[in-house]
Amino acid sequence: MAVIGLSMTNERHPANVIYNKNNLRLKVKAFPVNERGGTYHGEKVYTKVSEIPEAVDLAVIATRAQAVLEILNECIHSGTGSAVIISGGFAEAGHIELQERIAAMAREANFPFIGPNCLGIYAPPHVDTFFIPSERIVRPEKGRVALISQSGGVLVDHMVKSAREGFGLSMAISIGNKALIREIELLGYFSNDPETDVIAFYIEGFEKNEGRQFAIEAGKCQKPVIVLKSGKTPMGGRAVSSHSAALAGDYEVFSSVLSQFGVVEAKDEFELIPFCEALCCYQKPIDGRIGIITGSGGHGALAVDTCLSHGLTVPTLGGQDQQNIRERVSPRIQTIASFTNPIDLTGSAVDDDFVEAVNFISQHEAIDCIMILLLPYLPGITTDLGARLSQIYQQSGKPMIGYVPHVEKYLMFVEGFQLNGIPVAHSIEEAVHMAEALRRHQPC
Amino acid sequence: MLTYEMKEILQASVKTGWILEPLAKRLFSLAGMEVPRYVSTKRVEEAALFSKQIGYPVVAKVVSPNVIHKSEKNGVVVGIGSEEKLREIFDRFSKIEGFIEVLVEEMVSGVELIVGATNDFQFGPVILLGTGGIWAEIYKDVVLRMAPLTRKDIDSMKRCLKAHPLLEGYRGAEPINSEALNQLLLTFSDLVMALEQDFESIDLNPVICDSKRCVIADARIMLKK
Known about the structure:
The structure holds 2 protein chains of 2 kinds.
Chain A: E1 2-4, H1 14-25, E2 31-33, E3 39-40, E4 43-44, E5 58-61, H2 65-77, E6 82-85, H3 96-109, E7 113-114, E8 120-123, E9 127-128, E10 142-149, H4 152-162, E11 169-174, H5 183-191, E12 198-203, H6 210-220, E13 225-229, H7 243-247, H8 250-260, E14 264-266, H9 269-281, E15 290-294, H10 297-309, H11 319-328, H12 331-334, E16 343-344, H13 351-362, E17 369-373, H14 385-396, E18 400-403, H15 411-418, E19 424-425, H16 428-439
Parallel strand pairs in A: 1-2, 1-5, 5-6, 6-7, 10-11, 10-12, 12-13, 13-14, 15-16, 15-17, 17-18, 18-19
Antiparallel strand pairs in A: 3-4, 8-9, 8-11
Chain B: H1 4-13, E1 18-19, H2 21-30, E2 38-41, H3 44-54, E3 58-63, E4 76-80, H4 83-93, E5 101-106, E6 111-120, E7 124-131, H5 136-139, E8 142-146, H6 151-160, H7 164-167, H8 178-194, E9 199-209, E10 214-216, E11 219-223
Antiparallel strand pairs in B: 1-11, 2-5, 3-4, 3-5, 6-7, 6-9, 7-8, 9-10, 9-11
């Protein structure tokens, strides 16, 4: 990797931050480049990419915008594999023509680049072009979600927030002005990436007809695709001359078309992370027939309300089913628990009661997703429960979603689920949203 | 899918910027969609003869390039029961700005839907199905899908409408002919794709459905500028 634009005087320069973190902590071999040459931290500074004695796979360009065209040209002619253009000062600053020239040059040479005006690619342990010092970021674990964002800030924010949410990232890419490589190319790339199971985007908007192509490609993609959209509200009123135009606002169309093609829309940032977590665990769509198992009648009632208002169903279990579960649970709760769905095992339940109830429901055809609302303060419940329930999932394949209050004291319960592949929500409502995300192909 | 006559209609309307109702209806009927029996004429005798043949009551609408929303200009009268009344309306309509002629057609009743299309910047042709009539924008009961529509899309559009029970026969009413609505939407979807380069938005509002058929009671095509 060549890092072009290294400063000899400013250690906070993006190129210096990128060079140092990659050189010191990542597997990639990094070469510093600055047109004036010299040495940096005892290493030779190359004056241009073509001087580097080894083949360069990636050039990170962090110079001023006016220098980028020539540098890119040199990268192309020296056989460099690709580039990330960190530099700003292109379309976002009104220099549309300059941006079009670099894109046209790369396109003609069939040379891929990300950016400009971006953070680039976060793909530890190999490479990380984000100009954020390592100690400033809460590093997400390596995992199976690819996160792609037009905004670098939104991306880093979500990386930080996802760090303890039970899933990791296969890669995070900030595409900035997306002059050449855009969402649709990355959708294609991650569709075929064996290390990625879920593809999540933050999108501000598409070019003319680009949304159509994106929707069609997302519809063909076997992996769950999640989109968080900004710019939902129009700036000021627009004059429209037909009912259809008035009724089909930009965002209404965006939202409807994506759901038509099975894309999961996260309505806000509070949904994006739990959707990644849930879809990372379960890629097969469900119909949304929920079985609720809890130790509190109130939790069950709240969950039913939320399920129904989100178009999910909570099928009532028949008398024989209820009797079957009753016979399996501990004698002391047999007469006080409720087995209709929600199944309320009461505050006297122990781990075994949850295991028995989940075991039964996971065999029941009327239910295709199990919601476990756990109260970690109940005396009979232990941190083993998550692991035991996940074994039932391994056998039955029926998705489970947990809810555990995310306070520090109960994090062991949370991890008991998460580390064993069961997503855990922060609230009952979030658990329902996770189930809704699993439906995917059901627009209403 | 566009026939020579359809292209002529488009060509003739470029200057106005939109396709007047009689021509729009002609275009949809050429595509195989059902419209009410109608005559569009300046001559009240012709309208009276037509009305007598199909039987009163009839509907009259003003045709004018200056009037996009006819009901806002009092340019629509329904339930006209006699020739005398028809003459009176002809007289009044002829004073409306830009008057060309009067569209007289049979009365149709049933469930009122809106079927529409917009040419979205990001997604291209998009089709809308909703609760129709002049209050469509107030009810906002609409479902949108990117064209071309599949049968699966159409099923989910109908299911997603709040007014869905009306299609199935609410409170003893006969259900609408669902297949007629499917056919109308499929044909409309093909037509919208064929018109992709030409249209900005299309309103078929209302489309009136009963147990037998779905009829385009009003139609307007706004062309790209």
